[in-house]
Amino acid sequence: MTNTKEHILNVSLNLFMQKSYKEVTLKEIVDKTGMSKGAFYHYFESKEQLFVEVINFAFATVIDDSYNKFSKESLFQFYHDYIDYFINEEAPKLTVNYISLTFDALKFVPDFQRKLLKSQKAQMETWKEVIQEARDRGEINTPMKDEEIAKMFIYSIDGFGLHRVFGQINREHMKLSLLTLWDSFYEELKV
Amino acid sequence: MTNTKEHILNVSLNLFMQKSYKEVTLKEIVDKTGMSKGAFYHYFESKEQLFVEVINFAFATVIDDSYNKFSKESLFQFYHDYIDYFINEEAPKLTVNYISLTFDALKFVPDFQRKLLKSQKAQMETWKEVIQEARDRGEINTPMKDEEIAKMFIYSIDGFGLHRVFGQINREHMKLSLLTLWDSFYEELKV
DNA sequence: TCCTACAAACCGGATAGTCGGTATGTAGAT
DNA sequence: ATCTACATACCGACTATCCGGTTTGTAGGA
To answer: What angle do CA A178, A182, A185 make, to 5 degrees?
Structure first.
């Protein structure tokens, strides 16, 4: 890929993360890249196509199964790894603008919803796997079904993220808060 | 307030719930209200001021403490009431567009964030109250602290709502899924 | 001498907002 | 009762600006 094209993609991503698709204008893109419209339309056929490429560019790594790399030694270790990952990688992106970007992607980018659902499914499977092993191993002992436990973890972190978007909480406080929550839920599961 | 002004507010709210602030045009508002631009600018000084008024108009009732009306007889009854309310009143609004509306409101409407945080705090207090009473009454018996239990309920339903936005799930399935989840969590708390 | 990589001028349509004007109502003086 | 003076409600043509997109031009490397 040309350097210039990647440059345009990077600048545009930044802009799309600050404003909605509609709010970002071609003029802004052109100005901030230091290029001309001619250059832009040399690399992209339309603003919409640019957006699709930006999204695929940006979500290429996000949507994959990074949580598959977490330790599966124990449920305890797994959710601790998850929190570290969430605080360091995911949380900084969790802003009003980033969620808006996701919504714009749902509107404009074909196949985006399918990819999102697929990644959600994969995430669920990973949790269920870890939970089942934890149960077999005797790490936890609870009447809750594997899927319900997985849902509590997944939904609660998503809800947590959403809440975090509204009030601004610093990173250390976030981590502690999340850790306390899941630790206490984990203790409950052990009983 | 004039009838006409209220009419404009209603029509605009509908439009802002379908599209973002930027996507809604004055022409649309004027056309759908059956009025002229002159009339519009007679009642509002700008599109932005209209938006602020629409938001205050719309969220005046939404942000209040409707969950205070749920039965506090038992935690069991409370969360069942909550689900009924959520499925019938909140869930239909939980769409990409409605969440986008909330984000636009955060951008444009002064004091909106404060109101939102206040309502979240009130919600948390209500849950904690119900949970504490349930514990005192012996309805539940768990090492989890009241606040952690409340957080699990609140975050999980918000996360649930967010997930629901992405994949389209029908109302009956939603209700069942949520009921199953919370019932199993509740059983866990009783142990 | 072409082709690539860009620049710059330009286009039609849409946008939010303005403005001069009108029709209707109404309070107070006569 | 009616006339005057003014307010309110509304209309729609108009404007300046900005939008995404197109066309034309050109410097420089192969």
So the answer is: 145
Smallest CA–C1' separation from B45, nucleotide: C17
Q: Which residue has the tokens 């939970």?
A: A131
Contact A148 B106 (CB under 8 A): no
CATH number at B108 reads 1.10.357.10
Strand D contacted by A114 CB (< 7 A)? no
Q: Write down the pLDDT at residue B1.
A: 47
Task: Look up the domain containing A117 and give its range.
Answer: 63-190
Share of chain B above pLDDT 90, in %: 65
What Å value separates CA B48 and C1' D10?
Answer: 21
Residues of B in Cβ contact (< 8 Å) with A116: 166
Question: Would you state the pLDDT for residue A57?
Answer: 86
Average pLDDT for A36-58: 92
Same-domain pairing of A93 and A168: yes
Amino acid occupying residue A150 = A
Separation of B105 CA and D19 C1' (Å): 24
State the sign of the Cα–Cα–Cα–Cα dihedral B21, B24, B30, B32: negative
More confident residue, B166 or A121: A121
Counted domains in chain A: 2
Non-local CB neighbours of B186 within 8 Å, separated by 6+ positions: B75, B76, B79, B140
